[in-house]
Design brief:
Layout lengths: L1 H17 L5 H25 L3 H21 L5 H6 L6
Helix pairs in contact: 1-2, 2-3
């Protein structure tokens, strides 16, 4: 999950910047919070030995975050990719 998040978030943030998406900053902050939470879960897992309750807690948190993030932030990128000329570097 940590590897995927790093790759996906980087590409998504690049895309938001390229298409001048006004919510890009909010998106970056949400990603930072998510990565921090992943680090906390990893630490908790290492300290506890990974009981089943922790797996359920992590699954619920990741599912909730993913759905809420996609439905409130990521969907706001689409209109900009349709109507804005991307920045060229």
């Amino acid at each position: 999950m940590k590897f995927y998040a790093g790759q996906h978030f980087g590409k998504e943030e690049e895309c938001m910047a390229r298409y001048y998406c006004p919510i890009a900053g909010k998106n970056q902050k949400a990603h930072a919070v998510f990565v921090k939470k992943l680090q906390e879960y990893q630490k908790e897992y290492e300290q506890s030995g990974g009981p089943g309750e922790l797996a359920i807690k992590i699954h619920k948190a990741l599912t909730d975050w993913t759905v809420n993030h996609i439905m409130t932030i990521d969907v706001q990128l689409y209109p900009y990719t349709q109507s804005t000329t991307p920045k060229t570097t």
